[in-house]
Write a structure and sequence with these properties.
With 379 residues, the chain is of the alpha+beta class. 49% of the residues lie in helices and 15% in strands.
């Protein structure tokens, strides 16, 4: 067993962290307030080698693994979760093309993601189907050489800014087994009948784009099917088993960022004539925060490492995601508390971290769903 990062890993971490400090830190507060981000950030991230890193060389990427992606995700989230998601989430959903797509689909859709020229969205959740994704009703019907899609998706990251999306569709509603009724279909965002509206007023990750999408008689060619018909649910579960580890890395990064800021603040802030950090009660809290961050990091790294070895472990990925999400919420709460009144106003970043953290317990599987996955393994 070797816990040492390689020189390349250390360099990658440093590159990602410096990029985030340079590009996110000065603007994160403004983008959070105004619910926006400039698309240009993706070009810059691509130039720094931070986009599409799991894409193989033959499709323009560096062919790195999910472990390397976790390192990047962690470092970006340490500075700002929302902007970090803008960068690493620009490929969200496209992993399905990588895992299950044809050579033609990979050659067409993956290179622009690596170059920061395109954005993908993964459109799975519906207004009445989230945790129970088998309740999804967006219907794709084969008609001549096309699929005709009708229905609607909800809470889709990158929904109004994406160039294409991977959509979970009901293609075989008559199958006895609910899990065999779905397929994943690629839909270009400019197809007639695709209607997208941005959702405003999020609690956190406010710079990111989140949208409701409606499909009204949207026609896409039959070859836009990803993988085999009727396998969409199973493909999606494998995809989530890989990408949940990235949500865990987001949690680790956010929690580390909140801890860093709190340590700095506790050393500077004077209470009763001495630095806050000299109080043992404060030291206990910092120690607990650091311990939880380290635990979360270790599970997340292990889950990502197993994924790259081709030994994806759904229960471990679920543990990583739920524990890191809870850790981020818990650590951010402590960070605000230790900043006192200053922690409550947006001039201090911990306020944003506190709001941002909550999404980590909800998206890509609410933490209760993760615990069910773990319990299934145990029982
Ligand atoms: C900012 C944001 C970005 C998102 N991005 C995307 C995206 O890009 N693509 C996408 O497809 N979706 C996305 N989502 C949707 C997200 O994945 C869903 O919101 C999430 O899966 C929960 O589904 P739901 O909201 O329908 O909650 P529900 O399924 O209605 O569940 C509500 C709550 O009940 C609890 N719960 C549910 N089931 C159980 C159970 N069996 N036992 C115990 N408790 C349970 C959980 O606490 C859960 O939070 C995003 C959501 C947000 C808010």
């Amino acid at each position: 067993m070797d816990f040492e990062l390689t020189e390349e890993h250390r360099l990658l971490k440093e590159t990602a962290y410096k990029f985030a400090v340079r590009e996110f830190a000065p603007v994160a507060r403004e983008y959070d307030r105004e619910e926006k981000y400039p698309r240009e950030i993706l070009r810059k991230a691509a130039a720094a080698g931070l986009t599409g890193i799991v894409v193989p060389e033959e499709y323009g990427g560096p062919g790195a693994g999910f472990f390397e992606l976790a390192l990047i995700t962690e470092q970006l989230s340490r500075v700002d979760l929302g902007m970090g998601l803008v960068v690493v989430g620009a490929t969200f959903g496209a992993e399905n093309i990588l895992f299950f797509g044809t050579a033609e689909q990979k050659a067409r859709y993956l290179p622009p993601l690596v170059e920061g020229r395109a954005v993908c969205a993964g459109a799975f959740t519906e207004p009445d189907a989230g945790t129970d994704i088998t309740a999804a009703r967006t219907r794709a019907v084969a008609d001549g050489g096309d699929w005709v899609i009708n229905g609607g998706k909800m809470f889709i990251t990158n929904g109004t800014v994406c160039d294409f999306m991977v959509v979970l569709c009901l293609t075989d509603p008559d199958q006895d087994k609910a899990h065999q009724r779905f397929s994943l279909i690629l839909v270009e965002a400019d197809r007639p009948g695709v209607m997208r509206s941005r959702i405003h007023g999020k609690m956190g990750i406010r710079a990111t784009d989140t949208a409701a999408i409606t499909f009204e008689d949207v026609r896409v060619p039959r070859e836009n099917l990803i993988g085999a018909r009727g396998r969409g649910f199973y493909q999606l579960m494998h995809f989530f088993d890989c990408t949940r580890t990235m949500v865990a890395a987001q949690g680790v990064g956010l929690a580390q960022g909140a801890l860093d800021k709190t340590i700095r603040y506790a050393k500077e802030r004077l209470v009763f004539g001495r630095p806050l950090a000299e109080n043992q009660g404060v030291q206990f809290q910092l120690a607990e925060m650091a311990t939880r961050v380290e635990l979360a990091r270790n599970i997340a790294y292990k889950a990502a490492w197993l994924t790259d070895r081709g030994e994806v472990d759904p229960a471990l990925a679920a543990m990583a995601k739920y524990y890191a999400g809870e850790t981020a919420v818990w650590v951010a709460d402590k960070a605000v508390q230790l900043h006192g009144g200053y922690g409550y106003i947006d001039e201090y970043d911990v306020q944003r971290f506190y709001r941002d953290a909550k999404i980590l317990e909800i998206y890509e599987g609410a933490k209760e769903a993760e615990k069910l996955t773990i319990a299934r393994r145990l029982l």
